[in-house]
Amino acid sequence: EMPNGSPVFIAFRSSTKKNVQYDDVPDYKDRLSLSENYTLSIKNARISDEKRFVCMLVTEDDVSEEPTIVKVFKQPSQPEILHQADFLETEKLQMLGECVARDSYPEGNVTWYKNGRVLQPVEEVVVINLQKTVNKSTGLFTMKSSLQYMPTKEDANAKFSCIVTYYGPSGQKTIQSEPVVFDVHYPTEKVTIQVLPQSSTIKEGDNITLKCSGNGNPPPQEFLFYIPGETEGIRSSDTYSMTDVRRNATGEYKCSLTDKSMMDSTTITVHYLDLQLTPSGEVTKQIGEALPVSCTISSSRNATVFWIKDNTRMQTSPSFSSLQYQDAGNYICATTLQEVEGLQKRKTLKLIVEGKPQIKMTKKTNTNKMSKTIVCHVEGFPKPAVQWTVTGSGSIINKAKETKYINGKFSSKIVIAPEENVTLTCIAENQLERTVTSLNVSAISIPEYDEPEDRNDDNSEKVNDQAKLIVGIVVGLLLAALVAGVVYWLYVKKSKAASKHVDKDLGNIEENKKLEENNHKSET
């Protein structure tokens, strides 16, 4: 049936004749096919093919008809969101975009979604306008749906999409557009200041940067920075840098928007550590002199102080009431703030203890009775040079052997076998003085009393300890004897008093006996 309702024959097939006859209908030229089982096929379907078709069966006796309605469907193209806004502003209704789906038949419908949820029209917040147009030449529909939207701050990163709903031979179907994310602009509501790098502690000499940020989008690009001691803010970008900070940089720092509407603050503490060593550097003193040493510190927190002498940590601070050679060395007073990484100070004292040469000579006959050993014990700094001479000849004895020079002390030793009495002279000389000491040595035939040779400090200490022990024992014995004597004296005194009482009592007994005898005689 044509659009005006008139019938038009388009195809004929006889059961007896095998040929097929197609009527001359321009809309169906070369598009029809009628098979042997009387099935009519139409290729290259068009919208205009949506009509009422009738199958007519003609026999000798009767004519029968059976109609059918042909429906034509066309799936639309995938919808697209066109004319997208560059950005969205909060509290402002504006065009977000236009969803377009083309070439649909029959017409479809468009729905907007946000994060997978349907956007329902809300006055002055969500405004949706749907337009449908048809192409007169093709009969296909195009759907256009525009969305006006008033975003909020929470719409940042929200996904907007649209879905077109259409009908097909099997029923209702949908096609979804690609999601779109819009840049949502909103004003700054809070300002934050932070210190970079984000270290827990800051020390003198560090470089620090203050960074100010706002939570708006886009974020503010300029701020006012307020420095301790400054009344006016310093206009800068979002950062303000300070190099080689000092302790006077400690204080409260602030930043605000350029209109001073919002502000944030932070407190910076610049840690410091000062060390003063008195005296310091190279110090030369004479043996026996006193040297007060002080190491004082000033710091932002409690600091730990320790001493090092010649690369060995000392248990106590050095104190010199009477300098000795062993006190010489390189001293380091060091301090550190354990809570502040990298904050440590140290100063050095190079102590030199000088002394004029001091000489002590000893002699002894060796066990083989064939030679004698003469030792010249020398003290002094700088190290004295030692020479030996024999009185009379004045010749220098070059066979002397020296011990190691330790703590300003060493010994020079020679072995001789004199055939007669001689006098040996030991000469010790350094930059301070020349010292000469002589010692008479008998002939080898006369034994010398053995004298102790060189004694080191440990032996001297042991001898001193033994002497102290002996003195202690003697004093203890004397005290014990004194106590015993006092006790004995008290005992004797008490004994005498007791004997007097006994004698008196005995005398009284004798008198009583005599009186009894006289009384007895009288009675008789």
UniProtKB/TrEMBL annotation:
Residues 67-176, 187-269, 288-350, 357-437 form the Ig-like domain. The chain crosses the membrane at residues 469-491. It is a single-pass type I membrane protein. Keywords: Adaptive immunity, Cell adhesion, Cell membrane, Cell projection, Disulfide bond, Glycoprotein, Immunity, Immunoglobulin domain, Membrane, Repeat, Transmembrane, Transmembrane helix. GO terms for biological process: adaptive immune response; cell adhesion. The keyword Cell membrane applies. It is found in: Cell membrane; Cell projection, Axon; Cell projection, Dendrite. InterPro entries: CD80_C2-set, Ig-like_dom, Ig-like_dom_sf, Ig-like_fold, Ig_sub, Surface_Rcpt/Adhesion_Mol. GO terms for cellular component: axon; dendrite; plasma membrane. Its main location: membrane. It comes from the Eukaryota. This is CD166 antigen. It comes from Rynchops niger. The lineage of its organism: Eukaryota, Metazoa, Chordata, Craniata, Vertebrata. The gene is Alcam.
